[in-house]
Amino acid sequence: MPQGCYVRSSCMKTVHISPFSPLRHPWLFLHRGPTRKKDFMEPETSSKFLFTNFGTVRPSSAEETRLTHNATIGDPASVAAVQALGDLSHLVHVPLGEWTGELVLIDQWTSAEGIQQFLANPKIREHGQQLFSISRPGVWRLGEGFVQYTINTPARQTNRFLALLHGPVTSLDAAQRAYNQVFRQRIGEARKLGLVTHELFIRIGPGTPDSVEILGIDSWFKLDGPRQLYADPQFQAAFTGVFTRPPQTWVLHRPEGDWIEW
Fold it and tell me: Which of 103, 111, 122, 183 has a CA between 20 and 30 Å from the CA of residue 26?
């Protein structure tokens, strides 16, 4: 993760919002009318899809947020409905540090078409409005051609931290060359620092081909690992000229309490 990757949740508060932006009306741009087959330009070879939502919640506390989440997204009927559409997992994360009202939801899906049907559901939009005052949803497919790692980890290493990077790149080819080279060269070092998984996703959207936005998700069992790796000048130098503007980055962990996940 290049150039200042190890940052806290303040990154999520620097967005300037137009009065007509979907960020003020978080579900405005999710409903595109009747479902159309392949509207998300789903590649036939894609094996993994994500729906992410980076948002600021309406409730004033973490506990109120947990209760609202569990009563809406976690409602048994809602869970059954989205699972029937292909939602394989739903995980909740928050930025490190004190509660800021920022919540990150990451769902793994079997297809982009299933996500589209999910987003077109009025009940889903209602749940989103109850939980979020501002949200930044996205749909992603696994970036074929990017090296991906899932490393077996001893059972005693139970801590998990997510390091996320999201930003526009000059081209997917340039991003793929940079990421593949640096991770192939330094995967052994990254593992010693606590790396568990490394995945790259490409953003997709209704009616458009693949964009040039990427989402990197690395999981770690050592909190200091991402700082040591990403802050290394040689690591950062590998990404010179890859991003068209500085990417947004987060370090996340699982919130306390009993959140309904699957």
Answer: 111
The answer on pLDDT for 185 being more than 80 is yes
Say which DSSP state 113 is in: H
Tokens linked to 180: 């593949």
- pLDDT the model gives residue 110: 97
Q: Residues 46, 160, 163, 235: is their CA dihedral positive or negative?
A: negative
Specify whether the CB–CB gap between 217 and 148 falls below 8 A.
no
**Which residues span the domain enclosing 127?**
12-142
Sign of CA dihedral 140, 143, 144, 149: negative
- Do 175 and 65 belong to one domain? no
Distance from the Cα of residue 26 to its chain's centroid: 16
Q: Are residues 208 and 242 in the same domain?
A: yes
CATH number at residue 110: 3.30.70.100
The per-residue pLDDT for 45 is 55
Cβ–Cβ under 8 Å, residues 244 and 170: yes
- Exposure string of 149-170, with b = 16+ CB inside 10 Å and e = fewer, is eeeebeeeeeebbbbbbbbebe
- Say whether both 135 and 167 belong to one domain: no
Tell me the C-alpha distance between 198 and 219, whole Å.
7
Quick one: 249 exposed, middle or buried, by C-beta within 10 A (0-12, 13-18, 19+)?
A: buried
| Total domains, the chain | 2
Q: What is the pLDDT of residues 131-140, one digit of tens each?
A: 999 999 999 9
Beta strands 102-109 and 49-57, pairing class:
antiparallel
Read off the pLDDT band of 47 (50, 70, 90): confident
Task: Kindly report the pTM of this predicted structure.
Answer: 0.81
